[in-house]
Amino acid sequence: MAVDGEIRSLLDFMASRGLPPLHEQSVEDARANMIKGRAVLAQGGVELPRVEDRSFPGPAGPVPVRLYAASQGKALPMLLFFHGGGWVIGSIESHDDVCRRLARDSGCLVLSVDYRLAPEHKFPAPVEDCWAAVQWAATHGVELGGDPARLAVGGDSAGGNLAAVMTQRARDEGGPALAFQLLIYPAVDDDWTRPSYAAHGQGYVLTYPGMEWFWGHYLNAPSESGDLRASPFKAESLAGLPPALVQLADCDILFDEGMAYAARLEAAGVPVTLKRYGGAIHGFYNMTVTALAREAVTDGAQALKAALKA
């Protein structure tokens, strides 16, 4: 399948910058380049009446979080958003435009979590920070202007991985209750033999060597990739998890595992909506200068609005 024209133009522009591939960059350079890319990829311009930077107590100290809301209302449904970036790069800032759009179009109070990153804080540090965020939102949601009874989790790529892990942990540990999960091309498995790895593992934003780079920085040892907190696909059962929207890019190395996870959710009796975006690549959700990305973010927001009765 051909890549969407607007996305292809962005790929050509990024190639013209002459940057080395991700797996040849230092962690510091990769983080800086992701933030620089935001100026090119994100349309911006979404103003909201409420945007607040806060923090909550995490397992190793305060964890920053940014709150977004399209109104000053109380008892708003809540979305805990976990940004992508392979557990190594990405931040509140890199996903600011996406979170603004989700808040505006869903009516939700969006809480973007700046969890600790590897390699400074390896697995399971990001998992533990996100779990602390779930507990904090459930306990303090009313104070924030939210409704803990309408709490969703979501994220893209590594953030989708963390969101999926949170739903399983909440189920297995008796709460907090989660009402919905928004999984945007989630990295849910350590099986790299799926066909999409061969078909889309080169030439796009996320490559096969890039996946090795991310997992290598995240894990303490390769054997940890089989841990359910790293590869939620390996859970024995997906029954009892909250309803899901799974959004996938057809030209993405993670496409097949996303399809497989959606199929397993459905087979387990979980209400699932699957949306595929033809011509989209990994990371396109953040490319809000393109019509395809804006469509996908709107789809995510509308699903949240319907599921949480915003």
Characterise this structure.
With 310 residues, this protein is of the alpha/beta class. It has a single domain (5-308), classed as Rossmann fold (3-Layer(aba) Sandwich), CATH 3.40.50. Helix content is 39%, strand content 21%. It is built from nine helices and eight strands. The chain has helices at residues 5-16, 27-41, 96-106, 125-144, 158-172, 195-200, 208-218, 255-267, 291-308; strands at residues 50-58, 61-69, 76-82, 109-113, 146-156, 180-184, 244-251, 272-281. The protein has an eight-stranded mixed beta sheet with strand order 1-2-4-3-5-6-7-8, sandwiched between helices. Helix 3 links the parallel strand 3 and strand 4 (109-113). Helix 4 packs across helix 5 (158-172). The chain is globular. 52% of the residues are buried.
User: What is the 3D shape?
Assistant: globular
Low-confidence stretches: none
> What is CATH's topology name?
Rossmann fold
Count of extended strands:
8
Q: How much β-strand is present in the residues?
A: 15-25%
Strand order across the biggest sheet? 1-2-4-3-5-6-7-8
Assigned CATH superfamily: Alpha/Beta hydrolase fold, catalytic domain
Number of domains: 1
